[in-house]
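Narrative summary of target 7.
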Amino acid sequence: MKMKTIRLFRGILKAVAPPPKLTVSEWADRHRRLSSENAAEPGQWRTDRAPYQREIMDSVTQAGIEKVVVEASSQTGKSEVVNNIIGRFIDVDPCPILMVQPTIETAEDYSKRRITPMIADTEVLTTKVSDSKTRDLNNTILMKVFPGGFLAMGGANSPAGLASRPIRVLLCDEVDRFPDSAGSEGDPISLAEKRTTTFWNRKLVFVSTPTIKGASRIEQEYELGTQEKWCVKCPGCGRYHFIVIRDIKFDHQKHESNKRTTYIVDDVWWRCPSCLDMYDEYTMKKQPAMWIADNPEAIQNGIRSFRLNSFVSPWYSWKRIIQEFLESKDDPEKYKVFVNTVLGESWEERGEFEDETALLERREEYKADLPDGVLVLTMAVDTQDDRLEYEVTGYGRDEESWGIEKGIIWGKPDDKNTWKDLDDKLSRTWHFADGSGLVVACTFVDSGGHFTDEVYRYCGARLQKRVFAIKGQGGSGVPLVYKISRNNKYKLPLIMLGVDSGKTSIMQRLKIGKPGPKYCHYPVQEERGYDQVYFKGLISEKQVIRKEKGKTVTAWENIAKDKRNEPLDLRVYGLAALRFLNPNFEALERRLKQVSGGVETTPKPAKKAPKKRYGSVKRAADY
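Modeled conformation, tokenized:
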């Protein structure tokens, strides 16, 4: 037999032979080398460095498994898991592969920073995939061709890259950053999945950090799967637990200097929720661990899903996690990033307010009508069929706020006596402890409901007192003070408010844990109206995600059993009145000092040596 014929038969046998029984982790441990360009620990890959990665990688080649979902925080090695999957298929089971990133630009960046170095530093890949810098037209930044298949890189925003040739292995990275539609073609993941339908042995891999609860695609995919968590064995009782931040205890120092706060974390422990014993990071990271499924039946549907947070990462220390928690907990936007990227959890706007208890406990004693720090007063009025509800709120520098009085005026809005009682509140002077005082600077009255004419008449007669009719407009993206309209029969100014923006702002402020910019103070005196009923109404709504005409939109939904949300509406109106006024707080402060005879209304606290503080985290909130 001629040598040419022998080579031909060898090629045929190789083509039809089943791929070697080599799992992804086995392939990586044998062949993969990490590049010094993008790896903190370059050199030979070792799955044992982060043992939770083994089961994730090997589930891709597990019999009967079609889809693998990874919902994980940053710096858990999830990108390298994806790269190992790609490398293994290129080397031992070549086929058409598509990797989808959120955009074409991120796909190009990923190819340059991740894929190209992996190919260059892993010998078994270098011999099969030529360099994109060469003149080989088959290999570009977004296309790598190798014997038996190719790796295409695409953006979820580009339908052209998602709906062409058939694909056997589909990898979608950072799916929570995907647009709702690939151009005008629809859901990008669905488009990409359709390219795999001709393969009986297709593989789908979805990876991402979560984002907004209800809109998080990775969270939805995770819940359809086995819902496996990496659980660590307690050295004391022997039970396995998923380490979460509510079980973390720590001590730290807090230093205040030049209006800046510096935290120093001394010690961090995990407290077992079963036996309550406490152990440090070193002990827990040496303990046995395993994946435990909350929904094991999903394996019958061929879907395995995994969840990870930074507590198990060898590249993220517990002290660093708590440091980032302390530095972000008082800033809602920073805290949202912390929840997503460090805790690996989706963000829910209502956040830590499981009930009104935390807000009730923050109430404080006011020594006078107005606490020191208040510089301007606003009033908000909500009209109901049988009453008016109102709130007077004080604001100071950086929009720090003080609830002054929340009350109800009983009587129908078509009764003049009802509005006369409101006049009494409007004309009242509220006093500081030194005898100086303030009156309400601006009032917003809701014109919705069944008594619009009465509201217009009342406001029209009091424009010189800055009493204005308002109307709320729902929808995300509408500014709090939207526009001023005179399109009414009285030709009076009607101020349009973006109430959804206002509710988001109020909820973020309620989460601020210490006095200062945008913090919300409340009085403990019951006669001022800030009781349990008030706080129930203040947190009566939560932000939800809906699909409308193919787009994801956010909306506020009333979840209170009694549907009483007037306290939240009033806070939004009061903040809008402040924004409408746009006061110069420095000028107001100077004027108030002159009126009060130069008395410093906000004395500076004496400096004290920092104390060691002890903390724990409840529901990933402030402590």
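The chain has two domains: 14-227+294-314, 357-583.
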